[in-house]
Amino acid sequence: MTQNGSNNGRGGRLARRGALSALALTAAALLASCSATGATEGAAGGSGGSDSGEVVIGYSTYTVANPAFAGIIQGQKEEAEKNGYKFISTNANLDPNQQISDVQ
């Protein structure tokens, strides 16, 4: 237990890992829906997207040195490919400016 009485042992790590996984999956779903919408607009003559209708999911991570992030990326890649989506991930190597650049 910590000084404030909370237990940050195994349960705390599992809770954080679950929260990170949920956040990553939510981000992937949002990116997928944006990409799918862009592809539809592109085919209809709008801006963005491509005429192929291919769904591309992008994920920018702060670091892959942490095994939790590496596992999240691997899970996202497997699920994307299983559903016929293209998956692109970037690694900012602990550089927030690089992460912003990767997303743009």
TrEMBL record:
Keywords for this protein: Signal
Origin: domain of life: Bacteria
InterPro entries, per the entry: Peripla_BP_I, TAT_signal
Entry keyword annotation includes Signal: yes
Signal peptide extent: 1-38
Gene3D superfamilies: 3.40.50.2300
The protein, known as: Sugar ABC transporter substrate-binding protein
Coiled-coil region: none
